[in-house]
Amino acid sequence: MSQGISWVREGKIKEALEAxxxxxxxxxxxxxxxxxxxxxxxVGCLHGYAQGVFKICEKAVTLDPDNKNYQDSRGxxxxxxxxxxxxxxxxxxxxxSGALDFSNDVKQRRLRWIEALKSGNNPLTPxxxxxxxxxxx
Length: 137
Hints:
Blueprint: H1 2-10, H2 13-26, H3 34-46, H4 50-63, H5 68-80, H6 84-97, H7 104-118, H8 126-136
Helix pairs in contact: 1-2, 1-3, 3-4, 3-5, 4-5, 5-6, 6-7
């Protein structure tokens, strides 16, 4: 798993996906681990590979639909793949739930994203993504 995440950060998505498959063979419980899938989703999105990990993001939410952290990650993937309406739904549900133990800074960031999305704008500028990698990555 850690090798796969390292490869995602290096842009070696094909190798990373193979490493994740091998991890699931080694530890069968990972196949149904929403946390495993969410980790891949988050790292992939932060490093510019949202399209490549999108199905993995969806699987994390499917495996544990009540976990708002996973919906937050899928919202990130949705923004980065151009599905702004779906991202708005995800981020709004996350903030409205109050289920997350977000810091005030993280909550304020999500609220800014929601406002941008309501206006039809993509809030994830290159600068915002860089800040996200630094603060939440």
